[in-house]
Amino acid sequence: MPAEVLIAGAGPLGLALGLALRQNGVACTLADARAAGAAADDRRVLALSHGSRQILERLGVWPRLAATPITTIHVSQEGGLGRTLLRARDYGLPALGYVADAGSRAAALEAQAAAQSLAIRRECKVVRATAGTDHISACLSHGTGEETVRAALLAWAEGAVGEAADNVISRDYGQSAVVARVTVHPAPNGIAYERFTPAGPVALLPHQGSGCCAIIVRPHREARELLLLPETAFLERLQWLLRGRLHFDTLGPRAAFPLALRYRPRPVDKRSVWLGNAAQTLHPVAGQGFNLALRDAWELARLLRDAPDPGDDALLRRHAHNRRFDRCGVIGFTDALVRIFGNHRPVVRHARGAGLLLLDLSPPGRDFLARRMMFGARAWV
Ligand SMILES: Cc1cc2nc3c(=O)[nH]c(=O)nc-3n(C[C@H](O)[C@H](O)[C@H](O)COP(=O)(O)OP(=O)(O)OC[C@H]3O[C@@H](n4cnc5c(N)ncnc54)[C@H](O)[C@@H]3O)c2cc1C
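Above: the input record for the complex with flavin-adenine dinucleotide. Below: its predicted structure, written as tokens.
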């Protein structure tokens, strides 16, 4: 009986899962379709929650990562009253979350995987798999042909849920996120801005000194136009969207990412489990995708510790059950934010404004929101 977990995908999540399994004494091998270092040129900037910092610290990755702390989050909406402020000091924490380059996150995970001698097969794609009673056979395709390997469990960490995947619920938001590096004055000093506008949210994350990362969510056509705008016009548009709070000086590289919600209601099957983006691809409005993914990986690795058979059906069902609350909460919360703040009707706009104002005046409501951003489902306990 093979006692190994095969992880399909050595992206950030696959590597985090590999490290967590190693820490829990579960043997694993990773296979990735791409070459080593391919994720290092990912231009996105990510918001990592305080809970993610705790997991990355335990995996030995955090010291390798340069991250900018978010001490305050300022939430507002265009064309309506009300705003709310979430402050780290209200929770006795150094930061509500952190901002890091997606590329450096990948590099830090790869460096720690190398330090821990994780077995990673590069340029090696898992093309299909067949589950038997006591093992799963996976077909790996690589430069020299195909081969079949057996494992007790196949963990799919292959990134976005594919269009053609079975048993998937999806919603196309008809939007793209335009991500751009900018410099700003005065320096953001740890403040992140999230502003909801009828066409989509706009976020500004503090990133390295006077640097920031702007994320502008817009319908696809408008997003394409934003990518092509000359530097000055782009910075003026950003300033207008954020209503003159800050002054933008320079613009770095821009990129656009199409947005959709796609998730598997049942993230387990015979000797198979789907994690992170492969289980749920989220709208980045609240910056929750990788944070949720890390909790998926961490909890699975803990469950598999000392398990005689990591692919046992009852164990996998327990994993799906244990993760249901956190997954559904984040999927529902993210989707609700997009729908509520994307509604143009005046009555809804005023209700939203009142909601934000109430949130600002109500410490328990604000606490709940902040804890959800920091810890996911652990906000409830
Ligand atoms: C614009 C944008 C902003 C975001 N902002 C945030 C944020 O602020 N905070 C946050 O927490 N999350 C954020 N996210 C989500 C976050 O980026 C993702 O959740 C996370 O990076 C996904 O990591 P992953 O390892 O699951 O997938 P990927 O990074 O896609 O990695 C998948 C890996 O699997 C490999 N692979 C694919 N298929 C196979 C196969 N068949 N066999 C072998 N290997 C395979 C690929 O080569 C790749 O290396 C954002 C997403 C977007 C689009």
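Notes for the reader.
The longest helix spans residues 313-341.
The longest strand covers residues 169-185.
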